[in-house]
Amino acid sequence: MQIDSTDLDVWVMGDDGQPARVELTVVVDVATRSILAAVLRPKQPAKRGKKRPGGAGKSELPRPRGRATKAVDASLLLAQCMVPVPMRPGHDPAVLASASDLPYEELLALDPRFAHAAARPVIIPDLIVIDHGTVFAGRTFFDACAYLGISVRPARKRTGRDKAIVERTFGSIKSGFSQYVNSYTGKDPVRVRRSIDGLELWTVAELDDKLQQWIALEWQNHPHLELFDPRDAYLPDHSPNQMYRALVEIDGYLPIPMGETDYVPLLPTAWVGVSAQGIRFRNRTYDNPERDPEKGLNPFRGVRCPLRRRGKGGWEMRYNPNDPSRVWLRDPSGENAWVEAVWVHQERIGSPWTEYLWDIAKALYLERGGSLKDLEAERAIADALADLLEELGRGPARTGAQPRVPDGYAPLPPAAPRKRFDPYAGRDPSLWAPNPPAVSAPVQVQAAAPAAGADPLALEAAGLSPAAGSVRLDWVQGPLAPDPLLGASENPWPATARSAQQGRREDLQGRYREVFADLDDEQGNGERGGDG
Length: 532
What we know:
The structure is a single chain. By secondary structure, the chain is an alpha+beta fold. Helix content is 25%, strand content 14%. The protein has 13 helices and 13 strands. It has helices at residues 71-80, 104-110, 139-148, 164-176, 189-192, 204-217, 240-251, 260-263, 355-367, 377-394, 456-461, 495-500, 508-523, and strands at residues 2-13, 19-28, 35-43, 127-130, 151-154, 269-272, 279-281, 284-287, 315-319, 326-330, 338-343, 443-446, 470-473. A six-stranded antiparallel β-sheet has the order 6-9-10-11-8-7, with no helix packed on it. Helix 1 (71-80) runs parallel beside helix 3 and helix 9 (355-367) crosses helix 10 (377-394). The longest helix has 18 residues, at 377-394. The chain is globular and about 75 Å long.
């Protein structure tokens, strides 16, 4: 298998209520070309909005750290490859495994979980290829692979050919799914930096729901050029689900039951102490309200861990940055035994929250003059987090007249026309035309002949010809607006067409496309080629 992350070239509504880019991480099986697991995470930078005022003796208050795909997301993706994925509410019935090309009867006889599972193959990873990104090169990901019995093979640096299959898969996802989202930007800087005013942005959860349904309906059922029968070249190409069915008949299927105790070892690790109040971790207090002195956190209160190899006497704890409402403390008395502790102020929130939102609420509390040394700081941050979640739940303020509610007798008003997506909305249409403006010939300006013995390199840098002494100055041509006809084609020009041309295109859109096409060719992972 191969795993990697990339920008999905789509704007979404972030957790803090502001537009953000989205990052996609997928696991692709080499034998069947199946997308076994995929996760979307918003790319939210650390600096958002206006600069916060400085405090006493400080240049500025602490800012919440940026958010993107974490190592824990990649670790949980490996576990998702090994178990059937339940059918999501609201999905089309065609997403069910019973309506696909998967060997449903054989799988259901061995694993009852396939009765309500989505049409996605289940494969136990044996070898996974990664790059040198911080998400996969950390200890969390390697510990998860060691726990699941997966071998890891790092790809060579700056060599896209070592994981060409997942790179080509990203190109297919962007051309088959991303470009149909209303907030699609593409990799062209002209479109990436355009305004998104007036666009209705999807949330990350809504876009992830659409992506999972697209994978089950389109990707897994689409014939792949590399999935052919080597014994009969005249047979049609297979889809990933059909290839999985053929391989299951050869190798079989082994169900793996994974419970909560199997997912906890895949989470990040921290070494903490246990006091009379509980576990203190990142300005939060976790406790287990168990009264029996032999149960819960009671045996660990005020006791140093006997395994002092790491953590300076602290106990091993696992936490999830995407759900900080609870943590798990390892019990050394039993194998794979964990003690769950819940945040003491969780009842004040009542909604799912993340570590990123906690950092924002903490920054808001400090801006109001609060201090982390205050005894009521944790309760105040919890109230600020609850207010933030309530504000985000209401959505942006809407201006204008209130919508008219039908009384049941009057006819309904006609439906509003569907808004057409225009990637160049807001630009002056007078700056461009269906055909790009003609480029005038450069003005020939005669200059004095160079002096004898002048340096040829210096003359060439100044625009002078050592032989004729002429200067070619372009006084007419200025920056051109993007050609609207080029927006209909997202594919760069073929290499043969570029080499056949005598000169470079002078429009800004063509220059950007040629630069990115050359970069793809140099890295060996261009979107126009095959898996090689």
